[in-house]
Fold this protein.
Amino acid sequence: MIIYLHGFRSAPASIKAQALKARMEARGLGSAFWCSQLPPSPSAAIALVEREIARALQSDPTRKPVVAGSSLGGYYATWLAEKHDLSAVLINPSVIAALSLAPYLGPQTNLYTGEQFELTTRHLDELRSLEVPAITKPERYWLLVETGDEVLDYRDAVKKYAGARQTVLEGGDHSFSRWNDYLDQVIAFAGLSQPR
């Protein structure tokens, strides 16, 4: 199973989530894809995903889910991978989310759903509590970044995930513009090349 975690102000309707979902459905793997709207509260978002991880493990204890996260979702995916010993695909991930999001304190609007919410100092505190100072088992990670990311400095992620599989592409942007080129490789990384 691939558990996909969208970024800040994003949603399951995002281009990357929908592209991965469509590719998995086309390959008969639709039931192995999960992406839900994450609450604005980081602790609530983590609790929601942990319930899905537990459900997936209960359904098939022999196969751990893989978390894939974009931007803030990559920050969450790192914490979840470390806590639950999971593999993770990180797409232009936020490395220190509380620092990256501090300038956005105040009213926000979800880019896909139109939902309005407030980013608070409590949310930043929750993000700090999820920070992973250094990853263990770098082999469980696959980092995908584009050097043209206008929101986050890709070099921070390259440094943070040293030793992990890394795909560093010149140009692009924060959306990771070449995502569709890697869908089959992401599915293979998750051990889902064939439906079960």
User: Anything to note?
Assistant: The chain has one domain: 2-189. The beta strands are 2-5, 33-34, 66-70, 88-91, 106-109, 116-119, 141-146, 165-169. The longest strand covers residues 141-146.
